[in-house]
Amino acid sequence: MTMMMNAINYTPSHPDQFQIEWGPEGTYASRLISLESFAPDSILATLGPETILTETKAYTSIQFKEETPTDRLIHLELNSDLVYINHSCEPNVSFVLENGIVGRDQHQWVLKSLCEIKKGQPLTFAYFSTEWEMTQPFDCQCQSKKCLGRIEGAKFMDESILSKYFINDHIKRMKKSQK
């Protein structure tokens, strides 16, 4: 279970690196802003014990592996400022979730820059890079020239589109088995 923050009870998890820009209460308009500049391929944060593994797929969770009949513990709650990284079809960061739960315990789960990020820029990632099937599909409003429109998860996307993005290995495996 995640504790959703708001402007009243907000305690920053990464106060030197990021800041939440709050949107109107009850909307999905809040976003995470970088407080420093990052070069391409920089590690912005490591995901560790603050993350909670869960069977529950939620709009705040991130999928880190494929579901099997005996293992449904496939999502994680970030429980940090990182939950406010919004979707973009032209993302500037990725959640790199290698080696399942072992990857988290070995500090291999990271937030990484895909390009140069300037101080004051919002952080964005491609939700389908971690999500097979979204619990809350939506019509994208990123306004990028590369906007894909409806975002439902990698399950509903053509491989030719996915190949243009950083995609986590569990999603690649699921896409391969979908054929």
Automatic annotation (TrEMBL):
Source species, domain of life: Eukaryota
Any matching Pfam family: SET
TM region positions: none
Residue ranges of every copy of the SET domain listed in the record: 6-128
Protein name, UniProt field: SET domain-containing protein
